[in-house]
Amino acid sequence: MSILQPVSNKKSVSPVWFPSNFQAVIWRNWGIVPAKNIAAALKCTEKQAKNSAEELGLDPNMAANPIWKKRGYLTVIRNNWHIASYEQILALLDIGESELAFILKEDDFMWGKMGAFKPFAEDSIYRELTKDEKLKTEKIRNVVLGYRESNGCPDNSFDFLGEFYNETRENDNLGHIAAKNEGFRIAYSYFALYGDPLLDEKLDPYPEELLKRYARIGVNGVWLQGILYQLADFKFDLNMSKDREKRIANLNKLIDRAAKYNIGVYLYMNEPRAMYGEFFKKYPALKGEREYDTFAMCTSQPEVREYLYEATKQLFSEAKGLAGFIAITMSENLTNCYSRANPENMECEACKKRRPAEVVAEVNNILAKGAHDANPSAKAISWTWAWGDGWAKEAIDLLRENQIVQCTSEEGLKTDIGGTKGSVLDYTISQPGPGEKSKSSWKHAAGLGLGLSAKVQINNTWELSTIPYIPAFDLVEAHIKNLLKQNINNFQYCWTLGGYPSINMQLTDYLTKNPEKGSADFLNGIFGQELGQKVYEAQKIFSGAFAQFPFHIGVAYSAPQNFGVSAPFHMQKTGYGATMIGFPYDDINSWRSIYPVDAYESQMQKTAGKMEESLKKFNELGNQGNKLLDEIILNVEAASCNMRSVCNHIKFVVARNSGDRPNMLEAIKKERETVTRLIELRKKDSRIGFEASNHYFYTMQDLREKLINLDFCEDNL
Known about the structure:
The structure is a single chain. This protein is α/β, with parallel strands linked by helices. It has an 8-stranded parallel β-barrel with strand order 3-4-5-9-10-11-14-15. Strands 6-8-7 form a 3-stranded antiparallel sheet, with no helix packed on it. The chain has a two-stranded parallel sheet with strand order 1-2. Strand 3, helix 11 and strand 4 form a beta-alpha-beta unit. Helix 18 packs parallel to helix 19, helix 24 runs antiparallel to helix 25 and helix 25 packs antiparallel against helix 26. It is globular. About 1% of the residues have low confidence.
């Protein structure tokens, strides 16, 4: 029996701009997946696959870069979700069902990002093309060959890794190393694998050069996901703990290396992990709330609580130098019975008799006690993400073991953008926090003598995650200064997005040490007073632009700004709803969230327009020969392209829905210009389009596909 979720009857969204579906499989995987794997998926010979690639204008002899299987598998899964079956995806990645099931379940909620169902893919098996399909293929080939000859289009994905994995000397210009008595500043690796980061030592999530760069800018902590059953004995099924000794050994190596820079290693813990129904045939008494085909291991059961304590104690005993953990109890993953359930709809008989605050605090207390009984100095950080308004303070009251209360800084921040009122849950730079809920929770926790921490986003957010950092220095400054006024001096700098060792992190370090100073002073120190002032003025316009972004968590999660110019235009309504950091489709109602369509479009136009104004100001500085300044300008331009693309996409969908052919054509024209510009930027910088927990949102091949998509739309008009 397959352990993968059943395939839905819902028809997939086929890329109709290709003459046949199997050609889309070849296009999206060429140079990424070995030709033999593509042939196996399409049930053809390798020669036939290469011939088909050549017919599309691709280089038939292009070898696949093996790095994609290790570091880009999420991109492969996402790009094939609608055009290939499970069987074909397994063949493309050359993995088994259990590995794919683990990725979808544990790799940062990948299943949810894909929409929480697998659409039925049209037949993607190789076959001979019809005469009409051959003519359409020839047209694509001519366009692609013309582009290759005039501009070239190499895929430079992952080139940025070279600067971090080259050998470095231990004491090579270390600069500032954060003192141990400072508050913690915890970052996530810019490129670490999320699902199982400690299994393969060659895929080191924190190479020496990255640690060194963090140390220079005041980072004194790093985090990575830790799944208890992978790191300690899962007494219910020891097979699930296979290779745990290898992971612990690699964790200890990381702890030792990081310690050279006064950097502590923290684990993000989201426990206990839900299990598939098969598990509970042996342990029926442990079965709690259900989500999809998994069930919570009910923490009201003594055996589960005992396991959590013993496993955490074992982990901190064997990873002796572990700095601590960050516990989240109400995430997208099902863990305790209240983690996903509405208390009014609770089905678990044991937990429905208890209060949410009691269950949630109990989990945090057990993890903290297990860690402290092995290592009394370990920091136990209890993250209040999504704790209910009616019981968050009660849960804080119940915390024991000297825990640190961490709030998502912006939570509860009231907004009024373009006349639309809202509030913030998470993930904004455009609206500087902190929010009222976080301030209230911190005040309550401080009154109990508990430590305080803020989870922030210093570099980027889901507002725009596909550039290394958003150079809106004024907005970063406002947020940090607001937090310092709340006596907050512990920071989790980012979730999986935003881990690049950037000027934004350097600015944050500067402000916490020089609270009387500002970003203007900082930039003068970086670039010299004359150039620094000009950079400040240009970023001031950019900060103003980003402040116009129509923020709501629904917009951040659903709108197409992260896929940017790669998001295809659809001539017909897809009937699909946008997914969380997954597929935006053409679902403008989800994109706009709380905003009326006109207001959403207007705010995006303001954002893009002012970004372009900022870019013009930056370009007036001329060629300064300054690598950092060039990097800032490239980020500004890439941000501008992505926001302009959203404007083009909104215009196209609105015009399509009303049958407005001229505006559809105008949107296509503007989008083609935007795509072409971003391709040039991507050729300069392989970081564009990348984010650690999604891998590449778009490859160079995806950007080229968008040009084919636009040609198709234009031809049909």
